[in-house]
Amino acid sequence: MSGVEILLMAVVNLGTSAPQLTLSQDTITIDGMPLELNLALSTEEAKGPDVAPRSKSNSKARMRRGTSPDILLGLTGGVGGQLASPVGTGLGPFVGRGSTACGTLSLAMEWRGAGPFVRLGFEANRWTEQAYSTDALNDSIYSLGADGMGGLEQRIRFTYPDLGIELDTLSLPLSSVPVQALGVAVSLGGARDVGRRSRRVGSRWWMGARGEWVRSARTEREVNRIPEGALPSPASELGADRNDWESTQYWAVGLHAGWAVPLGRKGWECVVIGDWSGGSAPRWAASVGLQKRWVNR
How do residues 173-214 score in pLDDT, each as one tens digit? Predict the structure, then answer.
């Protein structure tokens, strides 16, 4: 049998057997001999490369890392002092005690990232100031001055009809009065760490604005300033009626700056803080201490 005849017979058999074909296998019979044509067809649809579905927990974790701040609790101690105000010079600087001890307990939050970070801090401060009682003022006073030994003296003048004028000095005792303050500061800072995804925190610095509410334990008979170019009011005048009176409760605004350096890997940092306040009772303060950082993972 020629090749042409074989081909014709295959076509005829294929036509008669077409209804019996399946998707998985086709069979052609030639001269009683089955001719198998393996035409297995795949019904699976083409798929792209495997892509793991985004985990909701990972997405939420990234959102938390981007919005939740680090928490810092610190304790510092240092010195601070009064600056000249419209009322006059503070007694501390006037008698040569330019600074007094101060302490601060702070709670702060830092939203850190690859670039600048934002810091929100809350503080409780305590210091002391020098004051004298108006009960010790003499009616014959003509000036106030430092006694050269860290104290204050009043210079008095008596006039006698027969003897003339007599000059003398009287001590004006000073006392330390506690002052407390609650403050808040908002700052913008920079860091040397590797970024927000790392728990390693490098040295950091910040600067911003601060406000605080101050309350002094002075009474209406205690004075903490010397008026410029004038004598203090008489002892009979008290509180706000005096020309040398500084309020015992007031709001103050100013500047806040800090620098922190990590100590090991336990979250402890050495911190240096500087503050300046203006207004009716200007003041400066500088302190150093420790703070503990809880990193937002």
Answer: 999 999 999 999 999 999 876 555 555 678 899 999 999 999
Distance CA 94, CA 145 (A): 8
- pTM as predicted: 0.72
Task: Please tell me the distance from the alpha carbon of residue 27 to that of residue 36, in angstroms, as a whole number.
Answer: 5
Q: Degrees (nearest 5) of the Cα angle 294, 268, 103?
A: 100
Alpha-carbon radius of gyration of the chain: 43
Tokens of 159: 């006039």
Q: Which two tokens stand for residue 62?
A: 């990234």
Number of other residues whose CB lies within 10 A of the CB of residue 224: 24
CB 226 within 8 A of CB 232: yes
Apex 80 CA angle, 275 and 251, nearest 5: 60
Maximum CA extent, the chain:
169
| pLDDT tens digit sequence for 95-140 | 998 899 999 999 999 997 767 899 999 999 999 999 999 999 999 9
Dihedral (Cα; 14, 19, 21, 22), 10-degree rounding: 160
> Of 106, 80, 77, 101, whose CA–CA distance to 291 is shortest?
106
- Band (pLDDT 50/70/90 cuts) for residue 241 is very high
Distance CA(235)–CA(220), nearest Å, equals: 11
Which distant-in-sequence residues (6+ apart) come within 8 Å of 213 by Cβ?
Answer: 181, 182, 183, 249, 250, 251
Nearest to 155, CA basis, from 139, 166, 141, 165: 141
CB within 8 Å of 139: residues ≥ 6 apart:
234, 235
> Residue 25 CA to chain centroid, in angstroms?
76
